[in-house]
Amino acid sequence: MNKKNKYQKLVLSLVFDAMGLVSYAIPGLGELFDVIWAPASAYLMTRMYKGNKGKIAAAVSFIEEAMPGLDIIPTFTLMWLFTHVFTSSKGAEKTIEV
Question: Band of the pLDDT at 88, cuts 50, 70, 90?
Answer without folding.
Answer: low
